[in-house]
Write a structure and sequence with these properties.
This protein is mainly α. It has a single domain, classed as Ferritin. Helices cover about 70% and strands about 0% of the residues. The chain is built from ten helices and two strands. It has a two-stranded parallel ribbon with strand order 1-2.
């Protein structure tokens, strides 16, 4: 009998993207097959993972050092697809780590997050194959490691993990995908637009899983979900909130109107601070 948590750890450590995707989808099929026997015996110790398994490339750089390229060039077009593929590759590891690291949750929790891992693997494959049609492959452009860095920061708290990864960082994808599709329309890349349609619908569901388990933990600990969410953003020095908000789809994922109003107020506050700083610098 195979131990589910050990299998998840092995998958996190797998460096080859094709193998990581294939074996993640296989484990999800195994989890859903009643004839397959998996043990959920907790590990004696859960490893801290400073970085998940990944190929030697892409080169990882700080977010502000990722080169910006003109969308008018094939390289710029490919770099956008590559950035999306990199997010999806990271998301496989994040979902697997949610399964491996937090070993005392109800069985539905593991079904949810392994489903997420399998779907992120599928998304990565779609984008990686599309990247090949543009003459590039995953690893050809520099990328940043912000998603995994937040995963590492929240490794000791499932409440923080659910709040800061799906409900904060991944929720930004719900806002960003329609904007990216507009760019891709200008490039007449109908295949990428179709891929992003698939990713967008799945992303709403993935964020809703984060919402579900975040609120489950808040209820378990007699915490107010909204207050807790915003205090976690401060505690973990979350990246600054930016618009535009896809309010309708965020609501489908579980966000309340009052939360969205609060997020929009933070966005305006950040924008005003940035404008003020810019005027101050130009007046010097």
């Amino acid at each position: 009998m195979f131990n589910f948590f050990n299998l998840c750890l092995n998958l996190i450590q797998e460096k080859d993207p094709a193998q990581k995707c294939l074996r993640t989808k296989e484990l999800y099929a195994q989890l859903n097959n009643v004839a397959e026997q998996l043990s959920f015996e907790p590990s004696l110790s859960v490893q801290s993972i400073s970085d998940a398994g990944r190929p030697g490339r892409p080169q990882l750089v700080p977010p502000l050092e990722v080169p910006k390229r003109s969308m008018a060039t094939v390289a710029g077009h490919a770099s956008l697809i590559h950035a999306l593929a990199h997010i999806e590759f990271n998301a496989i590891n994040l979902a697997l780590d949610a399964c491996y690291r937090f070993q005392n949750m109800p069985s539905d929790y593991y079904h949810d997050w392994l489903q997420v891992a399998a779907e992120e693997a599928y998304h990565f494959e779609l984008l990686d194959n599309h990247l090949a049609t543009l003459g590039y492959r995953y690893g050809d452009f520099a990328a940043h490691n912000g998603l995994w860095e937040m995963a590492h920061k929240t490794e000791n708290s499932l409440l923080a993990r659910m709040g800061m990864i799906p409900r904060l960082l991944e929720a930004r994808g719900i806002d960003a995908i329609p904007v990216m599709q507009t760019k891709l329309e200008q490039l007449r890349d109908s295949n990428a637009i179709k891929i992003l349609d698939i990713i967008h619908q799945d992303e709403i569901k993935h964020v809703s899983y984060g919402d579900k388990w975040f609120k489950y933990l808040c209820q378990l600990n007699n915490l107010d979900a909204e207050t807790t969410y915003f205090s976690l953003m401060q505690q973990f020095n979350a990246p600054k909130i930016r618009g535009n908000f896809n309010r309708a789809d965020r609501k489908k994922a579980g966000f309340s109107d009052s939360e969205l109003d609060h997020l929009i107020a933070l966005t305006k506050d950040n924008h005003e601070k940035k404008s003020s700083a810019h005027h101050s610098n130009t007046n010097k």
